[in-house]
Design brief:
The chain is mainly alpha-helical. The protein contains 19 helices and 13 strands. It folds into four domains: about 150 residues, 3-Layer(aba) Sandwich (Rossmann fold); about 160 residues, Rossmann fold (3-Layer(aba) Sandwich), CATH 3.40.50; about 70 residues, no CATH class; about 90 residues, Arc Repressor Mutant, subunit A. A three-stranded antiparallel beta sheet has the order 3-4-7. Helix 6 packs across helix 7, helix 15 packs antiparallel against helix 16 and helix 16 crosses helix 17.
């Protein structure tokens, strides 16, 4: 049978970068094997499922360039691919296991289960269901049924022995029966399946051959094998992917930085850079190669190259990748990708997940043709200096907005006082007036000669000039910035700074 894999997220939150890696690994494996990649939505937790999470899932897949072969929107002959639309199927098959004596109805109330949990805690007993309803008599069951209590359906897990599951990456995983969650729930009292039941039924009926998922699901593997055995089905090959950790060795979370794919998009990461970097979290081609296009990975990806050890998410390394990919963009490509960031505010999230504005939009109304031409001319001078697309707006804001208030300390080089800076700004004006008639090299030479005449270092001339022109000590290259603004505007700004002293 040809390879069939799936990515099956729950739309209870926005797509996590770790989930994106799982999706990519499945996608690349399918493409490298000329197989099929399925998208399945596991929305059985209806209370926590919300529409924006569903849209975020589709947006994330589209941004990553993951084109699923079967699933929502696309369709396919194994659907529906949204679990809430398969509810009747799960109910039918759960009741089938009860009829075969492989599962049973449990009528325990939440109150009784809570009492059992507290008794277990107080006596140092392992947690889990005490199998109270597993041995109910027919008379007891009839009485409970007549009381109107809606039961759940539990799987009859073995009381003794062990369960061995083979993983393509980790090898054999063995669990003693006593260490397996006893008699897990398959069908909830509201008729919705649990993750365990729906996952197994769907993987079997959708003919999934390989399950690539995070190592956090390893404890579920023995339970799933028992469900497969109860139905008499063959289990797909398992491939548990290494965990994605923060720099402190803990599971990656928002305390480490951005974790939602939407946050990376909002900050201005390129999808190519993100795909390249996260594909190296737990997978490698050799000991030296770092750069891979999506097309490369579709061809080269192999399960045998997946590591067992956890992968550390290094934000600085991702930033480096992003900068490298930005440098590779043509001017037209950079313009097309940057433009949306100039027309909306740059947002970020704090450690509590609250969104806040980092910088306002560069254009609050539709930019004019003239403004867009300035943007195009400015991009070559910032391309080598940006790490994220979102940085461009603040970096070129000075081209469209005069500094409202200068920070005078920024304009004061070390060992210089205000009177000296005023003298520098006065002395540099003749060079600015003839700036456009000379090359950058010739203008630099004139400033060097001025510095030598005044007994200063060249940076003692350039620093106050830079602050006058851009409003900041950190800016794009100064000479191209002066050319974009024009001598008249630069002279106006020099006067404005002088007047503040």
């Amino acid at each position: 049978m040809s390879v069939r894999v799936r990515y099956a997220p729950s739309p209870t939150g926005y797509q996590h970068i770790g989930g994106a890696r799982t999706a990519l690994f499945n996608y690349f494996f399918a493409r490298s094997q000329q197989g099929k990649f399925l998208l399945r939505v596991e929305d059985t937790d209806q209370e926590r499922t919300f529409d924006l999470a569903m849209q975020d899932l589709y947006d994330t897949m589209n941004w990553l360039g993951i084109d699923w072969d079967e699933g929502p929107i696309k369709g396919g002959d194994k659907g529906p691919y949204i679990q809430s639309e398969r509810k009747d199927l799960y109910q039918k098959m759960a009741h089938q296991l009860v009829e075969q004596g492989k599962a049973y109805y449990c009528y325990c109330t939440s109150g009784r289960l809570e009492r059992i949990r507290k008794i277990q805690e107080q006596n140092g007993l392992p947690p889990g269901y005490d199998r109270h309803c597993r041995t109910l008599s027919d008379a007891e069951i009839a009485e409970l049924q007549s009381s109107g209590v809606q039961p759940v359906i539990r799987l009859k897990t073995p009381l003794t022995g062990s369960v061995v599951v083979h993983d393509e990456i980790l090898g054999d995983i063995s669990r003693e029966a006593k260490d397996i969650n006893p008699d897990v729930i398959l069908l909830k009292s509201d008729g919705m399946p649990t993750y365990h039941l729906a996952n197994v039924i769907d993987d079997h009926l959708m003919e999934i051959t390989h399950v690539l998922r995070a190592q956090e699901w390893v404890p579920s593997a023995p339970v799933h094998k028992l469900i497969y055995e109860a139905f008499g089905w063959q289990m797909p090959k398992l491939c548990h992917l290494p965990m994605v950790m923060g720099s402190d060795g803990q599971k990656l979370s928002k305390r480490h930085g951005a974790t939602s794919v939407k946050d990376f998009i909002a900050k201005g990461y390129l999808s190519e850079a993100v795909i390249n970097y996260i594909s190296l979290l737990g997978w490698s081609y050799d000991d030296s190669r770092e750069f891979f296009s999506k097309e490369d990975l579709e061809e080269l990806f192999k399960l045998e190259r997946i590591n067992k050890a956890p992968a550390v998410f290094d934000y600085k390394k991702l930033d480096w990748f992003n900068g490298q990919y930005i440098r590779k963009l043509s001017q037209d490509e950079l313009y097309e990708r940057v433009l949306p960031f100039l027309e909306r505010a740059v947002m970020a999230r704090n450690a509590d997940g609250e969104e806040y504005e980092v910088s306002p939009a560069l254009f609050t109304t539709k930019p004019t043709v003239e403004q867009l031409e300035i943007v195009k001319k400015a991009l070559p001078i910032v391309q080598e200096r940006i790490t994220y697309l979102s940085e461009v707006g603040e970096m070129i804001r000075f081209l469209f907005q005069r500094p409202k208030q200068y920070l005078l300390e920024d304009a004061l080089p070390k060992k210089m006082d205000q009177s000296q800076v005023i003298e520098v700004l006065t002395s540099v004006q003749p060079i600015i007036k003839g700036f456009s008639q000379l090359s950058d090299e010739e203008n630099e030479q004139k400033i060097r000669e001025l510095a030598e005449k005044m007994g200063l270092k060249i940076n003692q001339i350039l620093q106050p000039l830079r602050v006058a022109v851009t409003g900041s000590r950190v800016s794009p290259p100064l000479f191209p910035s002066i050319r974009l603004l024009g001598s008249e505007e630069v002279l106006f700004r020099i006067d404005s700074l002088q007047n503040q002293f």
